[in-house]
């Protein structure tokens, strides 16, 4: 099951005076927390099509449940790179994955 948590606001590190909304979620063994920048979902292929959230979710959900956080990271990076080929990366790419043991 995938639960999207959309937190809008300014990017981290832009100012030390910004305040951010916080949320709480219970996480259990085997759960994965993935934080990413829009550089991943907005990565474009040579036809101008975006990688998008749906492809990102598929990259994770089609993966073996035994994959480590590092393994998931490599899969997502590989899928993004394969999709874009010679396309444009119009933004920075940031990806953080935490998997509960």
Describe this structure in words.
The protein is built from 3 helices and 2 strands, in the order E-H-H-H-E. The protein has 101 residues and is of the alpha+beta class. A two-stranded antiparallel sheet has the order 1-2. The longest helix has 16 residues, at 69-84. The radius of gyration is 15 Å and the shape is flat.
- The string of secondary-structure elements, in order, is EHHHE
Q: Estimate percent helicity.
A: 25-40%
Number of strands: 2
Biggest sheet, strands in spatial order?
Answer: 1-2
Q: Which structural class do the helices and strands define?
A: alpha+beta
Radius of gyration: 15 Å
Strand content: 5-15%
Number of helices: 3
Write the layout of secondary structure elements.
Layout: E1 32-36, H1 38-41, H2 52-61, H3 69-84, E2 95-99
Antiparallel strand pairs: 1-2
Any descriptors?
101 residues, alpha+beta
Quick gist of this model?
This protein is an alpha+beta fold and 101 residues long. It is 30% helix and 10% strand.
């Amino acid at each position: 099951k995938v639960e999207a948590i959309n937190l809008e606001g300014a990017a981290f590190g832009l100012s030390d005076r910004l305040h951010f909304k916080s949320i709480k979620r219970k996480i259990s063994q085997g759960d994965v927390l993935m934080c990413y920048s829009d550089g991943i979902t907005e990565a474009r292929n040579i036809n101008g099509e975006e990688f998008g959230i749906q492809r990102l979710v598929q990259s994770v959900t089609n993966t073996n449940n035994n994959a480590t956080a590092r393994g998931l990271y490599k899969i997502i990076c590989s899928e993004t790179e394969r999709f874009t080929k010679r396309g444009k990366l119009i933004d920075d790419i940031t990806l953080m994955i935490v998997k509960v043991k």
